[in-house]
Every structure is written in structure tokens, then in C-alpha cells.
Design a protein that fits this description.
The chain has about 375 residues and is an alpha+beta fold. About 40% of the residues lie in helices and about 20% in strands. The longest helix is centred in the N-terminal third of the chain and has 41 residues. The chain is rod-shaped. Bound molecules: 3,4-dihydroxyphenylalanine (DAH).
Length: about 375
């Protein structure tokens, strides 16, 4: 700092003495160093280098000094201002860096933390299988048909040529809505959708109807009171059993792959004549377990065949019940269990897995959409 100056009145310029200026700088530097963040630094800047700061006020007094003292005081105050400015700049650099680091830390994402995600559900394999089966028919030009689950007893039984004294109609098999004489049942099969399709649509008709059906069975490994079927119905001129067989073979190939063997085994259903069960050759043992106790097959129970569904040529009495000219039109129909198909196709052995709703079962089938 500069030495004493004896050419002017020291009282008049006490604010500009070396000690006073040093004191201002010291206070400014201390306040700047004490500023813990940019807001505090802003306050320190205002207090120590703003228009009303001691240094600014001292600066203003320079003009009142005698000429001989002006240069000296001006230099001193100029240096002081430069020191304070430098201290502010340095502190600002440090505080900005600290602020940025804090922001980075606060906004950091730790990619190694376990994700807090809710497992997505999976679509149920019964749903995706119904869609796949439906798609096979859509690609052959069929429509999807629907009907209510609480169905008219007439459509579920009478129109399908199931007489009132048929065992399937007893309280043991059928869930009746309200009372047995309400005329409404929980449909026991998807076959009533055939009746609705024939009443609603123009001929020729080619429809499939996947849906939920109900029977009074206890839930166990092979039964469930609520299950699913896919119904098929074609009504056209000149249809034969060969058309039915070709259609079912196509479905079997699409579901189980090239080389699957089917057979039609004579059977009885009131709504078809002739009627057949459609069997699949066991694709595990391919018939090799039949009559060979050393090679038992769990999939087909060593029968060589597994029952897949029912089918046949639509009984003319059914066509007549809905007013179709049986001289001109013939139909074929079929109905498959979706649960059975899933069991064969994907090796599911326990029906209960399909109804329990455990997402681990569902997800094992992948995120099929
Ligand atoms: N509705 C029958 C059942 O649930 C299955 C069935 C058999 C459907 C023959 C048909 C058919 O369309 O023609 O057991």
C-alpha cells in the first residue's frame, strides 16, 4: 500500500485512507469467502461492490480530494475494486461448480439399482389359442359368430335336437338360471351359436364361434365347470363329409404341425347325422404304446389316439328347426375343447393351472399377442 501523504487534509479523506480501504477489501473478501451458495454470493456482491457499497462510496469521494491526492487514492480504490472483483469471480467459479455437481448428483440415475417395476401380466394361453384357432378359419373365409353365455334352453338343447328327456339336460350337467323352468341356462356347449348363426345370417354360412361354456363339474386335474370350446358350422350346397375332414385336417396341421394324423371315429350327437369324434394320433408315442406294456404312454393312456372334439353332418332336423331348405342345403359342424387343445399342444397336464390365474403359468407361454 502507498505511504502517508502529507499534502492534504487527512480528516477529509479518512474514507480513502490505506487502512480504511484495506479494511473494506478485507471485509468484502471475508463476506465473499463466506458465501455458501450463489444466492449468498449475490448478496455479498451487492453489499461489497454494488453502487452503495463502502468501496463505491469511497470511489465517489475521490473527486473531492485535492489534486495531489487524487491519483494516489484513485489507484488505491482501483486496486481495491479489482481485488473484490477478482474475489467475486473466483468464488463464483467455485460455487457454480459446486451447484452443478449437486444438480448432477440429485438427478443421477443409478442404473444398477433393481428396477421397481410391476410385472406385466401375460395374455392367457387359452385366449391366444382361441385367437389362433379362429385365425385359421378366418384365413379360409369364415366369419366369427357369437352368442350369449346365458342362453335360451331352446337354442342350447331343443333346436339342436336334444329332447327334453336327454340326460344332458338334467340338473346334474346343466346350470339353470333361476329355476329349471326359466327357459334360460348357462350354455353347456357353443353349439347354440350354430342356431343363432342360421337364424341371423344369409346362406351360405361359414362361421366359427369360440366361447366359454359351463357344466356342473367339480374342478380337478381334468375337469372344470367353466371351460372353452370352438364351434364350427358350414351350410352350403353340396357339402360332404370330405369337406369336413379336409377342414379339420387343416386345423390340426395348423395347430400341431405338419405330419399330424387325424381320424374320424363314428359316434353320436343329436345334432349331427352321421356323427363322429375327431381323434388325433398321439404325437408322443405315434401309436407305438398300443399293446406294448413296456412302452406306456401318458399322453394317450397307451390308446394311440387322443379325443379332440366332436363333428358331423348337420342333422336335417336342426336345419329344419331354423327353416333351411334341406333339399338344397347341407351342413357340417364341429366342436373342439380349447383346454384339451392346450393340453395336447403345450403339454399342460393339470386343468387347475389354467384357472388359478398365476401369472407364472401364463408368462411361460410368452407375450403372444
Ligand atoms: N357340442 C358338443 C359337445 O359339447 C361337441 C360337438 C359335437 C359340436 C358335434 C359339434 C358337433 O358342432 O357337430 O360335446
Amino acid at each position: 500500500m502507498s505511504g502517508p501523504n502529507t499534502n492534504f487534509d487527512p480528516k477529509q479523506v479518512s474514507a480513502l485512507s490505506a487502512e480504511a480501504v484495506d479494511q473494506m477489501v478485507a471485509e468484502a473478501v471475508a463476506a465473499i469467502a463466506a458465501a455458501g451458495d450463489l444466492d449468498e454470493l449475490k448478496a455479498a456482491r451487492l453489499a461489497h461492490s454494488g453502487d452503495r457499497s463502502p468501496i463505491a462510496l469511497a470511489n465517489r469521494e475521490i473527486g473531492a480530494l485535492p489534486p495531489a491526492a487524487k491519483a494516489d487514492a484513485g489507484k488505491r480504490v482501483g486496486q481495491a475494486r479489482a481485488q473484490v472483483k477478482k474475489a467475486l469471480e473466483d468464488r463464483e467459479v467455485v460455487l457454480i461448480a459446486e451447484r452443478d455437481e449437486q444438480v448432477m448428483r440429485a438427478e443421477a440415475v443409478d442404473v444398477t439399482l433393481p428396477a421397481n417395476r410391476r410385472p406385466l401380466g401375460g395374455r392367457h394361453p387359452l385366449t391366444t389359442l382361441m385367437e389362433r384357432m379362429s385365425d385359421v378359419f378366418i384365413s379360409m373365409g369364415y366369419d366369427i359368430a357369437e352368442g350369449p353365455e346365458a342362453e335360451a334352453e331352446w337354442a342350447n338343447f331343443d333346436a339342436l335336437n336334444v329332447p327334453p328327456d336327454h340326460p344332458a339336460r338334467t340338473m346334474q350337467d346343466t346350470f339353470y338360471v333361476e329355476s329349471p323352468d326359466s327357459g334360460v341356462v348357462l350354455r353347456t356347449q357353443t353349439s347354440p351359436i350354430q342356431i343363432r348363426a342360421m337364424l341371423d345370417r344369409e346362406l351360405p354360412i361359414y362361421v366359427v364361434a369360440p366361447g366359454r361354456v359351463y357344466r356342473t363339474d367339480e374342478l380337478d386335474a381334468t375337469h372344470t365347470p367353466v371351460f372353452h370350446q370352438i364351434e364350427g358350422l358350414a351350410v352350403d350346397e353340396g357339402l360332404t363329409m370330405a369337406d369336413l375332414k379336409g377342414t379339420l385336417d387343416h386345423l390340426a396341421t395348423q395347430m400341431f404341425g405338419e405330419g399330424i394324423v387325424t381320424r374320424l371315429r363314428p359316434s353320436y350327437f343329436p345334432f349331427t347325422e352321421p356323427s363322429a369324434e375327431v381323434d388325433l394320433e398321439c404325437f408322443v408315442c405315434e401309436g407305438a404304446s398300443v399293446g406294448d406294456p413296456s412302452r406306456p404312454c401318458r399322453t394317450c393312456g397307451s390308446e394311440g389316439w387322443i379325443e379332440w372334439g366332436g363333428c358331423g353332418m348337420v342333422n336335417p332336423r336342426v336345419l329344419q328347426a331354423v327353416g333351411i331348405d334341406t333339399e338344397k342345403y347341407r351342413g357340417f359342424a364341429f366342436g373342439m375343447g380349447i383346454e384339451r387343445t392346450l393340453m395336447f399342444r403345450n403339454g399342460v397336464t393339470d386343468m387347475r393351472d389354467m384357472v388359478e390365474g398365476d401369472v407364472r403359468f401364463t408368462q411361460a407361454f410368452g407375450v403372444d399377442v
